[in-house]
Design brief:
heterotrimer, A mainly alpha, B alpha/beta, C mainly alpha, A: mainly alpha, MetI-like fold, 2 domains, B: six-stranded mixed beta sheet, 7 helices
Chain lengths: 290, 253, 277
């Protein structure tokens, strides 16, 4: 193997500024969005039944501003959204409280764990649409079905995460009892509270994501109002631009909530935490709640 | 019998941080290696020894200067042993030996495997072998392609002393039997003295500090007093190049 | 949970090591698991008694009878119908996701470019895929296939990208030093490195994809487990709904925990040894 003599080359030519911006991670993401919208438009040419981006945007504008769709139906946005948010919050409250209680009990008591853990795991694997069906069968067409769907879907996630948190801090709690008086409050404040809040927050975050998914399903199958119901309304009317529009509303809300709000909160509150220490089994939890 | 000719070779890396200085790994070195000799390249960290091997094997390109590795009139065939064994974990030992060959002749591969005492690992996976055994396979693999030039980059530095000693003996046995041209990089002067016919010493910044010939017969025992004397002498010269900065050392015996 | 626990106890002048053997600990674990299931059944039974059987929450024996009926009936036809769609969907996900993942892994630009859509795809609720598939295909075999494929594809792509990024550079350098050409490197180094990641993508998305597939069957299918659940829901046949749901969950878990994990272990046995290193 012979290498020919190589002389020193000059420095690489500087890339244009536009090129740098376009190839940055943010630039790539923005370009991706544009390309997606362009592709969407293309798809509508091939499959005319699929509503295009322009139609959907027009629809959303009418719906949100309370304008009139084709002179027949008026846009109703805030009423439905508010109803769904109310139900969602209530269901989340119930599910979270129950999950917190059960999780603490499971985490602290070996006996409770042996008895209750499997039940929680089974609940974890239940598909959300099953809860939607069951609650409708139990409570009929009312606000109770969506609320309880959210509660049932969210409960196992909170319980599992809180249980893990409680188990993780138990040795710390035990150590505390043998530590000096002086160290006890400090230990509690700086070790135990941050540790367990991390798990509680993770549980809450999962609960929000799967609960939101659950309420859409429940209102779809059994609603008389709300985001899910309104989505179905347009679907049943074969006005797919309405269907797609509401789905976008649904997605945007949770994406914004999760990635912009919850993500930031979690990162800020737990800056100190080594991300690898958590050991929360995410893959399995992301599975559930479909 | 390979011939390595290095002429005004230098390798400069771009600065690791913006606004810093470029890093000179190798700064204008020239030397030649001819014949079936075992040559060690010795030096502290940062003296460019690994970079030199990477350039010889084609993994890196020189910034300037020329490098020629030939066997007669054709380019030399290379064998390479790394610090870690670099075996494909999803292939058996024999398949690893065959991967680096251009033919399917498993008899040659098996023969070299037997020579290092690992014939029984023929169908095992690397993950089932200890670190020392994996490295032994790596050495057998390098020899089995019957290369003109064998490049070895600190092959024993990741092993414990006992395993390293045993592997050095395996290496000497293989080498005295096959007499290849070997370029052996190490930071361990003692090891270099035991194994080589010639030691090229590089200083930090990648320039040649010394070029020492060693006339003892092969194979050499680590405990041989002649070897030990030579090691002490060369270590002394090493001290001249990089005097210890620890104060008070002179007062020690 | 470790199999052996050594507790050192210092008593006076000496030290005694108390070893709990692997066998003892395992027996304890099985006992705990058994207890858990008994507790689950007990809780269920109690609740059903309180709420009044049949309409609200059928008792375990009632559901058990229903399960037996179903198993003796056309369970396997329905199960097979569902599973074949899941397999087809995953095949599509792998066929599209793997090359996509390759591109994402090899090029920083494409990695960033495709990252956003893939992430958003993960946030889309299953219902959207189910309805979309129904809109596109109507009542057909292909609806659930599309839904499963769309759900699983991002998982496969992301995992393959990870796998591609994680290919051992040392092995590539070794191949270069020994003069191996591009195709040899691809075949012997890159593909075996990435294959476990493809499988991981499938395994990780398995239960999620199957749930969405079943949901799609609820909408647009004339066969399958999802269809059965919907049919019994419309007939207000509570025991049957619960029976089908339980069967669905059990088989999904069995397939994921037993079949997939076993296959993965077999295909990639060399990883176990590598990990032990």
């Amino acid at each position: 193997m012979t290498a020919a003599p190589i002389s020193l080359g000059g420095p690489a030519p500087r890339q244009g500024r536009l090129h740098q911006v376009l190839t940055s991670p943010q630039g790539a993401q923005v370009t991706a969005i544009f390309v997606f919208v362009a592709l969407w438009q293309l798809v509508t040419l091939v499959a005319p039944r699929v509503p295009g981006p322009v139609d959907v945007t027009q629809f959303l504008y009418t719906e949100i501003t309370g304008g009139s769709h084709g002179g027949i139906v008026t846009g109703q946005f805030f009423e439905h959204f508010a109803i769904t948010l109310q139900r969602f919050s209530l269901g989340l409250l119930i599910g979270f409280t129950a999950g917190l209680l059960v999780g603490v009990v499971i985490g602290l008591s070996g006996l409770a764990r042996a008895l209750l853990n499997d039940t929680v795991l089974v609940l974890l694997t239940m598909p959300a649409f099953v809860w939607a069906f069951l609650t409708t069968m139990w409570f009929g067409i009312s606000w109770r079905a969506p609320v309880l769907t959210v509660a049932f879907t969210a409960f196992p996630f909170v319980a599992i995460n809180v249980a893990q948190g409680a188990r993780a801090i138990t040795p710390e709690l035990k150590n505390m009892s043998t530590a000096f008086e002086v160290g006890r409050t400090k230990r509690f404040r700086h070790l135990i509270v941050p540790a367990i809040t991390g798990y509680i927050f993770a549980g809450l975050r999962f609960a929000i994501i799967v609960g939101w998914n659950g309420i859409l399903l429940s209102e779809w199958f059994s609603g008389q109002a709300g985001v899910g119901f309104r989505t179905r309304y347009w679907f049943d009317a074969n006005r797919y631009r309405g269907f797609v529009g509401w789905v976008i509303v649904f997605i945007v809300f949770i994406v914004v909530l999760d990635r912009l709000v919850l993500n930031r909160l979690q990162a800020r509150a737990f800056r100190w935490r080594d991300p690898l220490q958590g050991e929360i089994d995410l893959s399995h939890q992301e599975q559930a709640g479909a | 019998m390979a011939r390595v000719a290095i002429q005004n070779l230098s390798k400069i890396f771009p600065p690791p941080q913006k606004g810093g200085d470029p890093v000179t790994a190798i700064g204008d070195i020239s030397f030649e290696v001819d014949g079936n000799v075992f040559v060690s390249i010795v030096g502290p960290s940062g003296c460019g020894k690994s970079t030199l091997l990477n350039i010889l094997s084609g993994v890196e390109t020189p910034t300037s200067g020329s490098v020629s590795v030939t066997e007669g009139s054709r380019p030399a065939r290379l064998g390479y042993v790394f610090q870690d064994a670099r075996l494909l974990p999803w292939r058996t030992v024999i398949d690893n030996m065959l991967y680096v060959r251009d033919d399917d002749r498993s008899e040659t591969a098996t023969r070299y495997l037997d020579m290092v005492g690992l014939g029984h690992t023929h169908d095992m996976f690397p993950g089932q072998l200890s670190g020392g055994m994996q490295q032994r396979v790596g050495i057998a693999r390098a020899f089995s392609v019957e290369p003109d030039l064998l490049l070895m980059d600190e092959p024993f530095s990741h092993l414990d002393a006992i395993t390293a000693r045993s592997l050095r003996d395996h290496l000497q046995a293989l080498w005295t039997a096959t007499r290849k041209t070997v370029l052996f990089v190490t930071h361990d002067v003692v090891e270099a003295v035991q194994l080589s016919d010639r030691i090229i010493v590089l200083a930090p910044g990648g320039r040649i500090f010394d070029d020492i010939g060693i006339e003892l017969p092969h194979p050499r025992r680590a405990a041989d007093p002649k070897v030990a004397t030579l090691q002490a002498e060369i270590l002394g010269r090493f001290e001249e190049m990089q005097p210890s900065t620890v104060t008070g050392l002179e007062s020690l015996g | 949970m470790t199999n052996t626990v050594a507790e050192s106890v210092s008593e006076g002048t000496g030290q005694a090591l108390v070893l709990r053997t692997a066998a003892g600990s395992r027996r304890r674990r099985y006992l705990a698991v058994g207890l858990g299931w008994l507790a689950f059944l007990a809780l269920w039974w109690a609740l059903s008694a309180v709420l009044g059987s049949e309409a609200r929450l059928p008792s375990p024996p009632r559901v058990y009878r229903e399960i037996v009926t179903i198993l003796q009936g056309d369970f396997w036809t329905q199960f097979w119908a569902s599973i074949i769609r899941v397999i087809a969907g995953f095949a599509a996900a792998v066929l599209i996701g793997t090359p996509l993942g390759f591109v994402m892994g090899r090029s920083k630009y494409w990695g960033n470019f495709l990252q956003a859509p893939v992430v958003v795809a993960g946030s889309i609720p299953g219902l959207t895929y189910a309805v979309m598939a129904f809109v596109v295909f109507g009542i057909s075999f292909w609806g659930p296939v599309l839904a499963v494929g769309l759900i699983a594809m991002p998982y496969v792509a992301i995992n393959v990208a990870e796998g591609v990024r994680g290919v051992d550079r040392g092995l590539i350098d070794m191949s270069t030093a020994y003069g191996r050409n591009q195709s040899q490197v691809f075949r012997h180094v890159v593909v075996p490195s990435v294959l476990p990641f493809v499988f991981a993508g499938v395994r990780l998305s398995f239960s999620l994809a199957w749930k969405v597939g079943t949901l799609t069957e609820v909408f647009g299918s004339s066969k399958g487990i999802g269809f059965q659940i919907r049919r019994n829901y419309q007939l207000f046949n509570m025991p049957a709904v619960i029976a089908w749901v339980l069967l669905f969950i059990v088989f999904m878990l069995l397939l994921e925990r037993l079949v997939l994990v076993r296959i993965e272990r077999r295909l990639f046995s060399w990883r176990q040894w590598e990990r032990d290193q």
